[in-house]
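Appendix B, example 12.
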Amino acid sequence: MGFPAVALIGGGQLARMLQQAAIPLGVRLQLLADRSDDSAAQVIRDVRVGDYRDLATLRAVVAGCAVVTFDHEHVPTEHLRALAETGVAVRPGPDALLHAQDKLVMRERLTRAGIPVPRWRRVGSAAELAGFAAELGGWPVVLKTARGGYDGKGVWLVESAAGAEPVLAAATERGLAVLAEERVDFARELAVVLARSPYGQVAVYPVVETVQHGGICREVLAPAPGLRAEVALEAVRTAMAIAAELDCTGVLAVEMFEAPRGVLVNELAMRPHNSAHWTIDGAVTSQFEQHLRAVLDLPLGAPVARAPASVMVNVLGGDDPDVYRRYLHCMARDPALRIHMYGKQVRPGRKIGHVTVSGSRYDDLRDRAWHAADYLSGAIDG
C-alpha cells in the first residue's frame, strides 16, 4: 500500500507503546531489541535481536525503512552519523540527540543560547568541587555523571568535598565526566513535551507537574494544577526555543524546575517520555502517535486534552509476582481507570506499568490512580 516502515532502536515499554500508535497510522515498525522477550519484542512482528552498539546490526535493521528513531538515547553518535552519511533519515539527528546523551554538552549549549539552567561546573577533583561550592555559597552540591544516568542513577547530593571523593574516584575509574550543579530551591518540577517535524511544525502539550519519589517519576498531573499563565508561557517558550536551537525532530521532553527566579531546565529527552504517558488516554493525539507523525514528517495531531485533568501514576513492581489477580480487581473496582502493563518481569522497584484516570477533580483522580498503582504493586491489599 506504500505506507512507510520505521526502524526502531530499543525494545522497552516506549517502543511497545509506539507499536500501539503505529497500527492506526498504517505504519510498520522494524525493531532492534536486546532480547527476544523485551517489552516491545512481545508485540512487534519484525524483530531483530542484536547489539545497538554494532554498526552492521544497525544497518541491517534500517534497511528498507523510511526513517530510524529510538526508545533510548544510547546509540553511539558515530554510528548514527555513519547511517546519516549513507542517506538514512535519522530522527532525531545525531547532532541533536547528543544533547540528550551528554549532560555536559547539553549544559554548555543551553548556557551559550541563553536558556536558563541551574548554575553548573565541570569538575574533576574534590578541590575543583570545593571551589564551585564556595562560589555557590556553600554545600550541598549536586553531582551528576555526564552520561548514562536515569531514574535517579548517576546523581548524588554531596555535603562536602570529602563526601564527594568516592563518587569522583569511581567516575574517573570508569572514564566518566562529572558536572556539579547547585541544589535548586524549587517549588515543584514541571515538564513540557512537544513534537517537532522536519518541516518545522510544532505541537505542544499542556505543561504538567511531575512528582519524583527516590529519583523515579511516580506521578504526573496534567495540566499542572494552579500553574500561573505567565509561568506556563515561560515554560512553553523555553521548550520551543530548545527545540529550534537543537533542531530537534520527534518528541522532545524538557524537565524543569519551577524556581523563584523562573523556570530552569533540568533534563532533556528526545523520545516519548514518562511525563506524557497520560496523553494515550487523556489527549486527542498521544505522544506516541505524535512522535511517529513527526519523524515521518506527517502533519502533527492536536495535542489538546480530552478532560480538564488527568493523573498518571507509575506502577512499580513489588514482592508479589501475581499482578494479574490484582489487575482484575482494579478493573472491576474502577472501570473508568486506564491500566497499561508493559509485559515485564516483576522486580521490586521496577516500572512495570502505569495507570491513568481523567476527570475534573485532582483530589478524586489522585486517590483513584494511587489506589490502583499501590494495589497493583502489592503495597496495599484492599
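Residues 31 and 118 are 37 Å apart (CA to CA). The chain has three domains: 5-90, 119-182, 188-377.
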